[in-house]
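User: Can you predict the 3D structure for this chain?
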Amino acid sequence: MNLTRRHVLRLLGASAVAVPAAGLLVAAARDRVDTVGRVAFTNRLQAPPLAPSRLDSAGRRVFDLRIRAGQREFVSDRPSSTWGVDSDYLGPTLRARRGERVLANVANEVEETTTLHWHGMHLPPEMDGGPYQPIEPGAAWSPTWRIRLRLLNGSNARVYDFAFADGRPFAQIASDGGLLSTPHGTRHVQLAPGERAEIVVALTPGERVVLRSASPADTRHTTEPADLTSEGRTTRAGRISHRIRRRRKW
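Assistant: Here is the predicted structure, written as C-alpha cells:
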C-alpha cells in the first residue's frame, strides 16, 4: 500500500485523539465513588399501607381515594413539597379478591390537573389511567373493573374441561397467547397440560359455586368438583390445579 502525506496525517490525527481519551478513562477509573461504610441508613423503608375499602349495595369493592398535597422529609430537617394518594407521598395498596368488581373513587384535591395509573392489576385500558385520562382540579374519576380468574391445568398428561356445576355462562378473555380481541362467551373451557385461560364470571357476594372438570368426552361433568367461592379462598391458579388432580382415572 502506498501511503500518501494525507494518509499519514489522518493516522497521526487519530492517534492524537485516542491518547487523551484513554487518559480520561484512566482518570475516571481512579476517581470512582465508594460509599461503603460511609452512609448511615437511618430512614426506614416506606411500605405502602393497605387502603380501607367497603362493599356497596351492588357488591362492588369500593375504594375512596384522595390525591392531595403534603410534605415529606427525604433528608433530615429539609422538608419537600409532595403529592400523594391518601398520604403525603406515594399511595396505598389496594387489595381485592379474585372475582370481585372494583370501584375506585379518585378525587383530585390539588390545584393542578393530574392523573393516576394502577400497577399490579389486570384491567381494561380505559380504566388504567395515565396522561390520556386527566383529572381536573376538584373533579373525580371513578374507574371500575372486575378481578378476573385464571385457570391453569397443572397436570402433566391430562386434559380438563372446566365448567360451573350450575351451567352458568362466563366470558373467556385471555389464553396463553394473551388477551383475546373480544370476550368469548361460553359455558366451558378445555385446557391441555400447562395451558392457561382467564375468565370473567358473575358472582354474588357470599355465594358459593362449584367449578367442575370432566373428560372432554363426558359432557355431564360428573367428576369430583373443585370448589370456587366469590371470596377467593380457592381461586388461585395453583390451588385450583392442585384440587383438580383426580383420584379417579378416565
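The chain is about 15% helix and 35% strand. The chain has two domains: 54-146, 149-243.
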